[in-house]
Amino acid sequence: MSNQPGEYYTPERWQNWLDRIDEEDLEPEDDDTAQLLWNMQDDTAIAVVKVVSDFEEGVLDEEEALSEIEDMREVVLAEPEFDDEQALMLVDSVQTSLVCVFYAAEEFVVGGTAEDAPIGEYVGAAADAEAEEDLDTALSYCVQAGTLVIDGAEFDPSMAEEIEPGLVVQWVNGLDSLQTAMKDPEVVEEEDA
Predict the structure, then answer these.
(1) What is the CB neighbour count within 10 angstroms for residue 72?
(2) pTM here?
(3) How far apart are CA 21 and CA 14, in angstroms?
(4) Is the pLDDT of residue 1 over 60?
(5) C-beta separation of 92 from 28 below 8 A
């Protein structure tokens, strides 16, 4: 079975989400807005999980899997063209959460899972590193946690509530989407949002 490039996640698919955000009357504290952003994030995580599972099943080799993930990352992390500052800020939070998802998938494809420590230890270490303003190390710990999530380890996303607000909390939100995608890799229908 050969997969067409971009079959996993097309620029049009991401643009559809951006169009919805552009059209909606967004309220950061509103449940509907939060649900739209979660669906957008989960939809991307599901596409990442499909690439990883096809890699594990031998449908994609390492180079193909990494190329698919990179293509997705370029689409999703590009700066959207919004005039609305609030929309930009909300999409940026989704993009930040997904950074960890993309890197965790790449790390898993290249190196497999991290050493077997509980996910909470990695997240705690990431929070400590962020407190010391060492963001590269903080991201690295979250990525290691992400490889464990891909491997089937479970974590309680509420652990993010015990961390100071910042990047680690957003990356843990991304891991939550990754965990959801691992359990239920069905495409989020935009109409369901």
Answers:
(1) 25
(2) 0.91
(3) 11
(4) no
(5) no
- In the chain, the amino acid numbered 45 is A
Count the Cβ atoms, other than its own, within 10 Å of residue 39: 19
Residue 86 near residue 92 (C-beta atoms within 8 A): no
Yes or no: say if 173 and 41 are a contact pair by the CB < 8 Å rule.
Answer: yes
Judge contact between 98 and 41, C-beta under 8 A.
yes
Amino acid identity of residue 97, one-letter, is S
The CA distances from residue 146 to 13, 100, 108, 131, in Å, are: 24, 7, 8, 20
Specify the residue for token string 């989960």: 42
pLDDT tens-digit series, residues 128-137:
999 999 999 9
Instruction: For residue 1, give the 3-state DSSP assignment.
Output: coil
> Model confidence over 5-46: pLDDT tens digits?
457 999 999 999 999 998 887 787 888 888 999 999 999 999
DSSP string spanning 80-128?
Answer: P--S-HHHHHHHHHHHHHHHHHHHHHHHHHHH-SPPS--HHHHHHHHHH
Q: What is the mean pLDDT of residues 91-97?
A: 96
CA quadruple 90, 67, 141, 128: dihedral sign: negative
